[in-house]
Amino acid sequence: MVFNFYNRLTSRQQSIYRQSDDIKRLTLRDVTQLSKITDELESFLKKEDLTQIEARCQLLADEIVRQIKSPRLKVQVLSVRPSDDWGELHGLYLPEDDGQPAKIQVWMRTAKHKKVVAFKSFLRTLLHELCHHLDYEHFGFPETFHTEGFYSRESSLFKQIRS
User: Fold this and answer.
1) Residue 64: what pLDDT?
2) Pairing of the two strands 87-88 and 74-80
3) Angle in degrees, CA 48, 73, 138, rounded to 5
4) H/E segment holding residue 55
5) Cα–Cα distance between 89 and 82 in angstroms, integer?
């Protein structure tokens, strides 16, 4: 399935899009440790402990990329989501640049009310940004698109970890 913006892509981008769309799942070898880390993450999110939240996010990302055999990246958890007339930013993936490792940034508080986000939304945002990293580093795509396959890969990670 393709989304509306597909027709505005170049033929090269459409090829990348279709390749991404064809990959529906990422398989983890050992979810026991990942489930434990996410349980801890949920607990620290409820306690609003930014330091421990970031540490668990880093552990989770490290273990997933280790199992999938992809390069490590840095995870940064920030407080209040940036917002503007376009909405709120939940997460951001910054690819490797000039020798600096790739980075994921996720925000733990809503922009308007500054409330801690729901755990499921927070975890899905982290996994979503991690999938962008895997598109570049694991699959070797020169660009990363929000395809149906991309969202399926994100869901497959979530279901394995939270089952």
Assistant:
1) 98
2) unpaired
3) 125
4) helix 50-68
5) 6
pLDDT tens-place string over residues 111-139 = 889 999 999 999 999 999 999 999 999 99
- Assign 84 to helix, strand or coil: strand
DSSP characters over 87-137: EE--EEEE--BTTBPPEEEEEEE-TTT-PBPPHHHHHHHHHHHHHHHHHHH
Reference 128, options 149, 92, 154; nearest CA is 154
**Residues 81-94: tens digit of each pLDDT:** 877 777 888 999 99
Closest by CA position to 130, among listed 87, 81, 78, 92: 92
Q: Collapsing DSSP states into helix, strand and coil, what is residue 153? A: helix
The three-class DSSP label of residue 3 is coil
- Please state, in angstroms and as integers, the Cα–Cα distance from residue 141 to each residue in 5, 10, 22, 78, 159, following that order: 18, 15, 13, 28, 24
Which element (helix H / strand E) includes 155?
helix 148-162
